[in-house]
Structures
1.
Amino acid sequence: MNEKSNNESKEVPEGSNGKAQIKSIADVTIRFAGDSGDGMQLTGTQFSDAIAAEGIDMGTIPDYPADIRAPAGSLYGVSGYTIHFSSHDVHTIGDQVDVLVAMNPAALKVNLKDLKKNGIIIANEDAFDKKNLDLAGFKENPLEDGSLEGYNVYDLPITKSTLEALKEMNLPQKTALKCKNFFALGVVYWLYNKRFDFTLNWLEEKFAKSPELIEANSRVLKAGYYYGETTEIFTSRFEVKPADLPSGVYRNINGNEAVALGLVAGAAKCGIPLFLGSYPITPASEIMQNLSKYKKYGVKMFQAEDEIAGICTAIGASFSGSLGATSTSGPGMALKTEAIGLAVMAELPLVIINVQRGGPSTGLPTKTEQADLLQAMYGRNGECPVPVLAASSPSDCFIMTVEAVRLAVKYMTPVIVLSDGYIAQGAEPWKVVKFKDLPEMKVVFRTNPDGFFPYTRNEFLSRPWVKPGTKGLEHRIGGLEKQNVTGNVSYEPENHQMMVDIRAKKIKRIENDIPELEVQGDKDAELLVLGWGSTGGAVATAVENQIAKGRKVAFAILKYMFPMPKNTGRILKHYKHILLPEVNSGQLNKIIRAEFLIEPVSLTEVKGLPLKALKIEHKIEEILKV
Amino acid sequence: MAENNNNKKEDILPIYTSKDFTSDRDVRWCPGCGDYSVLAQVQRSFPQILGQKKEKFVFISGIGCSSRFPYYMDTYGFHTIHGRAAAIASGVKTANPELSVWIATGDGDALSIGGNHFIHLLRRNIDVNILLFNNRIYGLTKGQVSPTSEHGKVTKSTPYGSIEYPVNPVSLALGMEGTFIARTIDRDPKHMQEMILRCYKHYGTTLLEILQNCVIFNDGAYEMYTNKETKDDNVIYLENGKPLIFGKQKDKGIKLDGWKPVVINLSDGKHSINDCLVHDESSKDLAFILSSFYDNPSLPLPLGVFLDRQRNRYEVEMENQIADTKKKYGEGTIDELLMGPSTWEIK
């Protein structure tokens, strides 16, 4: 339904209802929006799971208020769930919304700005009463006053129809009203020519113990579907064909799930137990919650008394022979700083996940940002090098977490993984990786006492990892400067210089052990768009769109922030222009300028939202003067 | 602790001497520091622990004079960051319950910057032994007021006297539902060894408050409890099942006057030993009363075990949950986990 899809839409034979025609389109973004109690997250995940199961590629993102239960009908209580699905490879959740399902006036008000011109609004007209209109700040009913001109508005009696469908069941009104999200879901299933069996099966499983709820929700779902079919208000239906994805077994995954799986799989590949020390914080809590479920895999999840104890228990676990890990967001990262320094000095493996959110301070807990990059790179006292990785998509969180585990145990170092609210909560289909295909990283603890000193080093400059309890290798480590080799406390000037240099060299050498930066796009491009972490999706989309318009553009996604791939400088210097979009005020730009003495064009935005591909495209066009 | 000894039968358990627990590092505390006594008593006590191998002992410390302790013990050791020893030790023990984990910490380290970790360790009852060196002053930073310093105390950071009141470590530990709480003093080596061995034997977190003299910045803080002339009248040793009596002539006792503990004279003809409170290490209520003797000039200072009771340990419950889950659902393969609850295939 965007420019591209319009070119491709073609009339297809009539659909099952014999009335509305089914149009094949390439690409759609739908947003379900309502009160935080309206079940919008559930509606969204049902729809996305149903279409994913058909092999249609997609990206999803929830958007919920920071308040637990904001007052019904209020603007700040609006909860939304966006699904972008396509017959092409999907990199983002879509810049703009094609279809907005608004369960009340507040949901319409909050989300209208994201709706495309000519976009579809499906509104629950029953909720547009005086009280709700007042709460949303509408003087007149927008469904009636003509202010929605330019949109395709479908006002449906969702509440009335729901109650009607359940009339014979004599349910309490409160229970009956809770089903109304499934009416909307039914309508959307019909509109996109999807079968509702997926949700019926889910209901059977979910409410196995309450047949009444299965019956009620099924009735309402079907009522919504048949409403679409029998009323003649919709003139068209749409169909998105499956994307041409590589064959294999797929699942849906969000970034937080992927991190949790990456930690478990990584530790298993090392052959050591996983210990997560963590403290609840939005938007990272899901990682600790997931790991607390994985008991049968031997995972120990320690919900600590604070962020500092989260990382310190993890350091203790690593010291005692487990893989220690900790998950947090920016404010927690600030608290963990001193302990990261300890892990650097003690040269112990540790994985630190920072799911970035809007800052500074408490900032925007539920919104996304990439503004903790400089903190991750430099936010510690002393010369304190730590590898920093950044995941570029929900499923990439798995890959980069496994990488972090590999580097942590091989180089005896803490490793920081940067995720953010956007990819942590956004979901996409993931071609499930086989355990055997993950990189080898078996840990071998030192057990031989002959010639043992805690700070001898192997060819990677890593010191030996000894599990306490091993006879004859008793030794002491700590945060005071270490004498080279013996690990004894040393304040010698020459020794300190040597140890600072060794720690720096050890981390720098990781550049020999990571993949090179890969460029995609036009071979003769003059402009390279450099994305990092979660901007990767928008960058790829923007460049692909520009190439389709005949522009000579290329892109690369940086995921190893420190050390960077060895070819980074060579690549960046090859292009006349470098465009560097990021969701902060230019943090990577600072690093690139300092490191490579080049001047990228910085494109920044800090609104708590993921960067839009369109914004990048405009900048590309500006630079290329087209 | 003893239950965690996983030695195979054919292994002959080594007999250790204090030398086996002495590292090759020069001890660098000030001459006359009470810390020397603590180090010596630990090194003398550990060989008395039979059935535990030396390599199973781990010492964790934070920052402060006492936190240098691990460097002087020839065991596994980790000198960490200020206040965090309890958190790091919690991770060590939870991840690897086979180890015998000990914390060396001071009043500033454990009760000020590390107060949060200290209380939560006690609450979780992880089998970790806390040796709390309480000298009521900041020594390493050269003489500032500490969380156990008395109200009114003049220090480098309180030139006009401290305007805060001290933490009572025993009461705090009781409030956190600690399961083993004891107090000893640097100048009574035998008693300290006895307490260290009791700590080792207890299942769960143990707190041993060690009154320790700082010769440089707070010399004489415990003089009245160590001076031969005064100590018998100012210290009461707690012995389980025995009446609470003290004094050079064993002629003083403690009785409860309503809710108030008072000193009675056993030779005044009005009171007898039968009036005295009898110590019961299993009673939390009595432990609270005894903990209130701290800084009370009309009552003697109790040394010994305030409380010794059993409660589930965090690390054991965690291992049990893992074992139960494996038994109930089977040990999953990583491939199963990666697949998740629902998948689809594209051909």
Note: The CA atoms of residues 32 and 40 of chain A lie 6 Å apart.
2.
Amino acid sequence: MGPNLTWYLAVSAFLFAIGALGVMLRRSPLIVLLSIEIMLNGANLALITFSRNHADMSGQIFALAVMAVAASEVVVGLGLIVAVHRRKLELDVDKLSTLRG
Amino acid sequence: MGNALVWAVWFVAAFACLGSAAAVVSFSNPFYSALALIGNLGSLAVLYLLLSAEFVAAAQVLVYAGAVMVMFLFVIAYLGRHADAPWAGGPSWQALGAVAAAGALMVEIVVVVGLKASGRLSNAPDVTAAFGSPSEVGRVFLSDHLLAFEITSIVLLAAAVGGVVLGSHAHEDPPKPASSGLLQGEGRAR
């Protein structure tokens, strides 16, 4: 047996923190979306690690559902970014602070 | 597979994963960030294989590293170059606060997981070869988690409809009615 399951959880916590850092630090909405993907994948790694720990497939099912939600989120988020770009607004999440276009 | 080989594969995959995640956050060009995220997703698929989740690893490569990232790269190429240097003009208070908050979040995760699960994580139970296989995933998905399966289909349908609505040109006041929307978008590159 290879590394302890604790090591996988450590990687998962680091991934989640790096993704959260990207969400808070970066101003481009594209990079914010990419960082949210990193956070979702950190959560997925924790789910699959606990699924292996309990020898129960439900965690993997949950991870697949998270993947579907992430794909949906990317579709809507990229649609929003393209819509913002078409209205000639600046792509900066600090400046997109009002709901009126 | 030998113990040392598993450790070596885990080491390479884990550090490729963390390194490419840091690269996603720190590159100023979004195109490079998206390419680094593909590496991140690929090395995560290796970790999933080590955890005997074969179907999830395959779906990760097909859905994430394939379809989702192609869409990301397409939109980044459509928007043109929007360089955004994360550390431009020295570290600001907002950047320092973001680093502190992310560090606090990680400490919180480690403490909570360590308190609740540290005793039970020492050894992984033996599983059969069917664990994580596509047939087993399909059986569990369509028996125990049928409601989650159906809700997933509704979520995907709503996202598809939302993408079409957001991408339609109906609500836009047309400055030049003769030309198509794609050409307008290209003419506006800043």
Note: The longest helix of chain B spans residues 54-79.
